[in-house]
Amino acid sequence: MKVGFISLGCAKNQVNCEQMIWQTYEAGYEVALGAAGCDVAVVNTCGFLQEAREEALAEIQKLVEQKQAGQLQKILVTGCMAQWWRDQLAQRCPQADGFVGVSGYENLPQVIDQALRGEHPALFGDIDAPIPETDRVVCTSDYWAWLRIAEGCDNRCAYCIIPMIRGRFRSRPEEAILAEAENLAQAGMKELIVVAQDITRYGLDLYGRRTLAQLLPKLCAIEGIQWVRLHYLYPDEITDELIDVIAREPKIVKYLDIPIQHCNDTILKAMNRRDTKANLLALLKKLREKVPGLVLRTSLIAGLPYEDDAAFEELCDFLREVRIERAGVFPFSPEDGTKAALMEHVDMEEAQRRAELAVDVQSDIIDAYNDSILGEEREVLCEGYDSQAQMFYGRSYAESPDIDGRIWFTADSEIAPGSFVNVRLTGTMDGETTGELV
Which residue from 97, 133, 94, 142 is spatially nearest to 116, judged by alpha carbons? Predict the structure, then answer.
């Protein structure tokens, strides 16, 4: 019996899917990525935004068509969308054979068994329960992996449903994180991407204080790990102690993902963000001063409640001033159950228009940054070779996988994926940089 997995959404979702793959394999099933040739398909869904839920429903519909054609026996829907729509799933996904929310992933093999017996299981555990420590099958690559250090969120931003889906913030014990990191290093992983909804809060619930600054040097001490990358840091929790660790540890890549969402004080307060524009400017200035060569990534939301034309122009001016190198810009999505959905806001068409204008501003910043680094030599983690382009490709410290661009480079000898090489940057191509092996 073969079980295929499809994972949608964020890094935390990917880790959950990798845990389910391990559990399913250990239960004696054959496992695969994708549904082709499988008896059972598991879709691990994202439920953060309406757009993500629509993507999940479209994926499920493809599987329904395969099932109707006799190419698939059972469809299981797991993850955030399943959790968010737990009371409506039977109506929204009538062709699905079982559901698992964000808790109880370790019980997926039993759910598969039940579905194959003709039952229609629906497993929704306690979203605030401690994080189960289970093994996983890393599916991202052979040389980098996500390292999840916490689950849930306590920030309660007015536009966000994550706390209602994923529960309160729960840190994993430090010893469990370090043991997993050791195992990943022994498996050949060279880059660990430390991830949680808010990694700056790590340790507060377990140890009574924030202990990310103590955890990071221990991760850096693990033999075989060459890069440690940090996603996502809540801006008002970035302490001087943490900045010093980031600046001091050579294995911590000088790239920080700090979602700020907006810069206008009225909007930030209404969205229950604990920042002010002045504090954000001061933080970014301090980071630039203490961490030479720092590359910043952020996420922004256009069309939030209270964003008039002046506030949107303020956001664009802020971008031009601080020159954040990487930014994801999203239109505001009024999610049922959030405070922001009940506030007055521009329509979706206008929010989308503003998002596109902000992307144009950011594109100019990225192009200027790429031009500014030409002639530099960068350490690059080679990820493969493109026969059509006849070039190798990879990432430096300045590019996080899947969300940032690549570095394309030529070499007169074979470069194995997973190798670190030095590349001299010589040009740009469609917003990405090109170079040659040194």
Answer: 97
Task: Band the pLDDT of 414: cuts 50, 70, 90.
Answer: very high
H helices then E strands: how many in the chain?
Answer: 14, 19
Q: How far is 333 from 276, CA to CA, in rounded Å?
A: 22
DSSP state of 172: P
On the question of pLDDT at 9 being above 90, the answer is no
User: pLDDT digits over 291-304, tens only?
Assistant: 999 999 999 999 99
Walk across the sheet containing 98-100 and list its strands. 30-33, 2-7, 40-45, 74-79, 98-100, 122-123
Residue with tokens 């370790």: 106
Provide the pairing of β-strand 391-395 with 377-386. Answer: antiparallel
| Residue 103: predicted pLDDT | 87
Residue 261: DSSP 8-state: B
Average pLDDT over every residue of 311-325: 97
Q: CA–CA separation, 208 vs 156, rounded Å?
A: 20
Q: List strand residue ranges (DSSP E) for 309-351, in order.
A: 326-331
In terms of Cα–Cα distance, which of 413, 284, 303, 395 is closest to 352?
303
pTM score: 0.94
- ∠ CA 84-38-15 to the nearest 5 degrees? 45
Question: Rounded distance, CA 274 to CA 201, Å?
Answer: 14
Question: Which residues, in sequence order, are CB contacts of 94 under 8 Å at separation 6+?
Answer: none
What the block records as the tokens of 417 is 């994926």
CA distance 166 to 189: 28
Pair 202, 157: CB distance under 8 Å = no
Q: How many CB atoms lie within 10 A of CB 164?
A: 16
CA distance 37 to 34: 9
Backbone angle region of 188, left / alpha / beta, with phi > 0 → left and psi within -120 to 50 → alpha: left
Residue 290 in tokens: 């203490």
